[in-house]
Specification:
The protein is built from three helices and two strands. With 117 residues, it is mainly alpha-helical. The protein has a two-stranded antiparallel ribbon with strand order 1-2. β1 and β2 form a beta hairpin. The N and C termini lie far apart (150 Å).
Length: 117
């Protein structure tokens, strides 16, 4: 055998290793790029990754703003709510008269004793 025929398997081995190294590098660089983009995107949402684990930052909201938002939501919910089967004598949003007991007009008292005279 010639000395070149002994080098062909060695050259093929190096070419295979080079191809495998190229594929591994491509996969590694894509994974690092995705991790970097994800990290930047999460930092915009106040989430950061570190050696101790994930840290979540809380956006500061003042108490007055929080109370105003909560009250606004409750008022909207109250205004847009309707209870079709519930009618109250204390409040009625539609100002409708219920079919219940009617009040008498003032000074219209009639008694059986006045008719007997």
């Amino acid at each position: 055998m010639s000395p070149l025929s002994k080098l062909v398997p060695l050259v093929l081995l190096f070419l295979g290793l080079a191809f495998a190294a190229f594929v591994a590098f491509a996969i590694y660089s894509i994974a690092v790029d995705i991790a970097d983009k994800t990290s930047k995107k999460m930092e915009k949402k106040n989430v950061s990754f570190g050696r101790e684990g994930m840290k979540i930052g809380v956006k500061e909201v003042k108490t007055e703003n929080y109370v105003d938002q909560t009250q606004s939501l409750l008022v909207k919910a109250w205004n847009y709510s309707s209870w079709p089967a519930y009618k109250s004598r204390f409040w009625n949003k539609e100002n409708e008269q219920t079919g219940g007991a009617k009040g008498r007009a003032p000074n219209t008292r009639s008694s059986s004793s006045s008719k007997a005279k």
